[in-house]
Amino acid sequence: MVRREFSLSNGLLKGHSKWQNIKATKGKNDMLKSQAMNVLLKKTKAAALRGGFDVKLNRELSALEQDCRAQGLSLDTFRNFLTKLKDKPEIECTYNVIGPSGSFFIIEAETDNRKVFENTLRKYFNKKADGLLNTITTAQRHQHFEGNGNMTMIITICFQISPALIFEQK
Length: 170
Fold this sequence. Notes:
170 residues, alpha+beta, 3-stranded antiparallel β-sheet, Transcrip_reg_TACO1-like_dom3
């Protein structure tokens, strides 16, 4: 015997919101893990530049590797970052930017990929200057200008830009 029913409730779909229940928790944990890994990789970069890239010879690197294990972070990411630093070192580049109202910026940066940095720079100048960015050109250091003040901006590009500004007056 076949019974036909008509139902307006979603009783058959109960339990299918498991992902909705754990999505917020997983997202929060992933964000914390990513932040911890970024801090560890910054320390790794500084330690590698001071003492070399070999984990067996550099005590700071071996301590950071143990710290990575203790926090349950990926050792593959740690090792891949070391090989990237070793194989493709960062280069210094200088950019001249004519911004809104004819303002002039000389930006000195250290990056591993010049084109990606230039595109990011262009994106944020256009975003903040309402599309008034005129030119970005690469140049040597300017001999025409006297450095009266020094503004240092440390930018970490992961998923978002978080600048920390320090202004020093000579």
